[in-house]
Specification:
Helix content is 38%, strand content 21%. By secondary structure, the chain is of the alpha/beta class.
Length: 338
C-alpha cells in the first residue's frame, strides 16, 4: 500500500513516521508547499517527496491531509476527484458552506473521509464512553470538560485558526456528542482576553466557558484557556445516578491540590497536545488502514465534523450577542464571519 501525506508540519511528520512503520505500508509519499521540508521528512523515514500536486498525481492508495486549514477544502475536492480514501485533520474547512460542499462531493463520489477527532480513539475516553453506553453510570446528571492549552499560539496561527471555538473547542463539541449519543440542543458561551492581546486582534478569546444543553436536557460545561502554567490540561468528568468517573486526572498538568495529604498524580506535566494525545493520534492514523481493509467502521465520519462546527458557530453567535443560541437555528455563517 502506498500512502501520501500532504503537509510536513508536526502532525504530518508524526503521521508519516507512524505510517512508515506499518507492515501494510510499502511507501510513504510526502507532499508539501515547501518541497525542502518534505524532502527532510522523506529522508528520515525512507519515503519520497515532492509538491502537493505531485504527491496526489502519484495515485496513492490513500491520502492524509495535514495541511494548513485554509488549504483543506481545495485539496480535499481534488483528492475526492482522484477517488482517494482520505484522512483529514480537523476541521474539514473553517466555515459551514465549504464543509457542506466537501461532504456533498464525497457522498456523491462514495468517497471515504475520516476526520481527526482523536479522543474517540483514546483508551481512557473510550472507557468513559463504554460506561455511559452500558448504563454503568445510570442516568447522567452532568458532564464537565476541561481544555486548557499549555502555551498560547503564535500570532500567525491565531490569524488562520478560525478562533478558539472552531479550533480548540471543536474537539469538545464532538466529544460531547460522541460520548452521549445526543445532539447539542442549545449553547450559551462567554469568552474574553485575559492575558494575550494578540487574540483580541483577531476578535478571538484566550479564555472561554460554554454551557451546553444536550437534546435530552443533559448539561455539559466546558472551560477553555490558551495558557495553563501547569501544562497541557485536558480532562473530563461524568456524573451519574449510579456512579461518576473522570478522565485525565493522572497528570501534574491538573490544578494543584491544597490538601497536604492529597495523592500525587503518577505522570508529570504534559507540554503539548502531541505529548498528551500521542497514543490516540497513533491509533487514529492506523484506523484509516483498518477502515480501508473493512476491519472496522469509520470512527469519525465527515458529518461529525459538520455538526461540531455548527456548535462552534453557535457559540460565536452566543458570545457576540450575549444570549443562548439553538444549534438547529445555525444553517449558515453569521454575517461578517469567515
Amino acid at each position: 500500500m502506498r500512502i501520501a501525506v500532504l503537509g510536513t508540519g508536526r502532525l504530518g511528520s508524526f503521521r508519516a513516521r507512524i505510517l512508515s512503520g506499518l507492515s501494510e505500508v510499502d511507501e510513504v509519499i510526502l507532499g508539501n508547499r515547501t518541497v525542502e521540508c518534505a524532502e527532510k521528512v522523506a529522508e528520515e523515514i525512507g519515503g519520497t517527496a515532492g509538491t502537493i500536486d505531485e504527491a496526489i498525481d502519484t495515485r496513492p492508495d490513500a491520502v492524509f491531509v495535514s495541511l494548513a486549514t485554509e488549504l483543506h477544502a481545495g485539496v480535499l475536492h481534488r483528492c475526492i476527484d482522484a477517488g482517494l480514501p482520505i484522512f483529514c485533520e480537523k476541521p474539514i474547512a473553517l466555515n459551514l458552506p465549504e464543509t457542506a460542499e466537501v461532504i456533498e462531493h464525497a457522498n456523491e463520489a462514495g468517497n471515504l473521509i475520516q476526520v481527526a477527532f482523536q479522543r474517540r480513539l483514546d483508551p481512557d475516553y473510550r472507557q468513559a464512553y463504554e460506561a455511559v453506553r452500558d448504563g454503568t453510570l445510570g442516568t447522567l446528571y452532568s458532564v464537565r470538560i476541561t481544555a486548557h492549552d499549555a502555551e498560547p499560539a503564535p500570532e500567525e496561527f491565531i490569524a488562520s485558526s478560525g478562533g478558539t471555538y472552531r479550533d480548540l473547542h471543536i474537539h469538545d463539541f464532538d466529544l460531547a456528542r460522541w460520548l452521549t449519543g445526543m445532539n447539542v440542543e442549545e449553547v450559551y458561551a462567554v469568552g474574553s482576553v485575559r492575558g494575550f492581546d494578540r487574540y483580541a486582534k483577531y476578535d478571538d478569546v484566550d479564555n472561554a466557558a460554554i454551557l451546553m444543553n444536550m437534546s435530552d436536557g443533559l448539561p455539559v460545561i466546558i472551560t477553555g484557556t490558551r495558557h495553563n502554567p501547569r501544562g497541557h490540561d485536558f480532562r473530563m468528568e461524568v456524573f451519574g445516578s449510579e456512579d461518576s468517573l473522570s478522565v485525565g486526572q493522572d497528570s501534574l498538568s491538573q490544578p494543584r491540590p491544597v490538601e497536604p495529604d492529597a495523592p500525587s498524580p503518577n505522570k508529570g506535566p504534559y507540554g503539548d497536545f502531541m505529548e498528551r494525545f500521542g497514543e490516540c493520534l497513533r491509533q487514529e492514523t492506523m484506523a484509516l488502514i483498518e477502515v480501508m481493509k473493512g476491519e472496522r467502521e469509520n470512527p469519525s465520519p465527515p458529518d461529525t465534523a459538520m455538526e461540531a462546527l455548527r456548535v462552534a458557530v453557535a457559540c460565536e453567535v452566543s458570545r457576540k450577542e450575549g444570549r443562548p443560541v439553538r444549534v438547529a437555528d445555525i444553517e449558515d455563517e453569521p454575517s461578517g464571519s469567515s
